[in-house]
Design brief:
Number of strands: 0
Strand content: under 5%
Oligomer: single chain
Shape: globular
Number of helices: 9
Length: 254
């Protein structure tokens, strides 16, 4: 399983490179531009994949070598990491082919796998600094980005199949924003204020604010405001979990 994690971590950037070259059909940016939504982020935000892929490979190499091969926590999350990496790689050609419903299932599956791994690592009582650097950081970033990207993908699927009104998207887009906020806040709470997870999500949300602030799609300005509110809520929750709550608990114990 450790070797499979390594191979799949390498597969992700290879598939991404092939996808950008048009090997599977139109690249992701071209497909995305065909279906404008109120949840789409500015293009620069997707550069985070380069960092995520690099860190995932570093994690995969680290967990497959040395005494880490006998670590119980790393053994526990290995199937989750492998599933998350495999589904992330598969999603790219599916999106290029316009198989949107399948893409939604795949990306939410990737989110479930990587988020579960990040939760396990965040709550590991025996976590060491090296584990937080080499395992917790990569998988938390991956999960954080997918927590937002999954809902961006869902919004584009709704528009692609015209399942809901596309000339007035604000109502159902607000519902998707609320669901995304719920997922982000619940997972961040489970991870006790995961800074890497929150950073990836806030990077994407900030890019949504930028994109929607400049968009002429009806409701875009309101959508930008909603995304900004989620950023503030995530930041406030993280401060509470990591700073205020421990201080309150410490004060109450004296």
């Amino acid at each position: 399983m450790r070797l499979l994690v390594l191979l799949l971590s390498i597969a992700m950037p290879i598939v991404a490179w092939m996808s950008q070259r048009g090997e599977f059909g139109p690249d992701q940016g071209t497909v995305s531009d065909r279906y404008p939504t109120l949840l789409v982020a500015a293009g620069y935000a997707f550069s985070i994949w380069g960092l995520i892929f690099a860190l995932d490979i570093a994690y995969a190499l680290w967990q497959a070598t040395g005494d880490r091969r006998r670590d119980a926590t790393l053994a526990r999350i290995a199937p989750l990491a492998a599933a998350g990496f495999a589904l992330t790689a598969v999603w790219m050609p599916l999106f290029s082919q316009g198989l949107f419903w399948l893409c939604v299932a795949v990306i939410f599956g990737a989110l479930a796998a990587t988020a579960r791994a990040a939760v396990v690592l965040s709550r590991d009582p025996d976590s060491q600094p090296r584990q937080r650097l080499w395992a917790w950081l990569p998988l938390s970033l991956h999960a954080g980005w997918l927590s937002l990207a999954a809902f961006l993908n869902l919004a584009q699927t709704i528009v692609a199949y015209r399942l809901l009104p596309v000339d007035d998207m604000l109502g159902w887009s607000a519902v998707l924003y609320a669901l995304a906020a719920l997922v982000l806040l619940v997972l961040n709470g489970r991870m006790r204020g995961n800074l890497a997870y929150v950073a990836a999500a806030m990077w994407g949300l900030a890019a949504v604010v930028v994109k929607q602030s400049q968009s002429t799609v009806p409701g875009a300005q309101v959508a930008a405001g909603i995304a900004l509110v989620i950023v503030v809520a995530l930041l406030a929750q993280t401060l509470w979990l990591r700073w205020w709550r421990p201080r309150v608990a410490q004060a109450a114990s004296h």
